[in-house]
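**User:** Hello, beginner here. Are you able to go through the protein record under this note? It all follows right here:
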Amino acid sequence: MRLPAARGPITAGLFARLVRPPGELDPPPVTQAGASALDDGDLQLALFACYELHYRGFDDVDDRWEWEPSLLAARRELEGAVQSALAAVVPRPPAVPPDRVRRALTEVVAADAASGPSLAACLQREGDLERFREFVVHRSIYHLKEADPHTWAIPRLYDGPKAALVEIQADEYGGGRAERMHATLFRTTMTGLGLDDSYGAYLPRVPGITLAVSNVMSLFGLHRRLRGALAGHLAALEMTSSLPNRRYALALRRLGGDAATARFYHEHVQADAVHEQVAAHDLCAGLAAQEPSLSGDILYGAACALAVERRWAEHVLGCWRRGVTSLEGVTSLEGGSSEGSRHAG
């Protein structure tokens, strides 16, 4: 993967510097404030690029940039805008005693489920093949590296919570079998739909809120002080996964997808029904029992996961209701990053 085209002044300055040898980097011109930072394609792409240096990197960026102090300082400015945006849209749930964490997580999830329409239900009932492919393009930004952001927490936990997280992640990574890794299964879904399954192929085409979904995971994962929020984030994803993935599988089969193409979704229906219990009880409640001061962070991380997902779904559904694509600079989904590489944030 190479750096995509810039989307504004932040990425223009950052990308121009990243393609040169590591050295001093000027502070990014961050002006976006409040909730709108979650939708800002320029800011979110810049932060995504900073985070990507901790994952698979870019072919045209020197790996030594990963720990360049001035880049970390720039990333801190971008993270500050995202954290302020989260604070603006996500009321912080009150801390609860450790023995109430699991119930509180269930309440957070239930409140979110009642807050708006379901993208999964829409696709199951009335989505056409092009809309489903568009949905998959959005999801490729995370699913092609599925589980990696939450894996950052493993060395930061111990005893029961660590074992619980390892149990979940081992399933995500296919139990040691490459062909069963969830990221690999998702690549099969993409190829079955005629999409480019190469890592980051659609990075130039997704809007800021899609990048924010991934960035929030990385934000929580790359900061030890946010380990509670990361645990809650994972629990929220697992607790809200089985039914939507069942609907995605039914939608895909209705649209003519074969068993191999739909396997990714069927796998999540089964696996996440188990992961839900492990994440809520063994991981989150266990972590709160070890460190009671983290109970509020756990619930906040869950609330953030759900709020950002909801904002993303509202963007997609809103575009579809208006009869327009939810992607950036796209007239066709054929191919990968060669088209639509220059677009507004």
Summary: The chain has two domains: 9-88, 92-321. The first helix runs from residue 9 to 18. The domain at 92-321 is CATH 1.20.910.10 (Heme Oxygenase; Chain A). The CA atoms of residues 158 and 287 lie 9 Å apart.
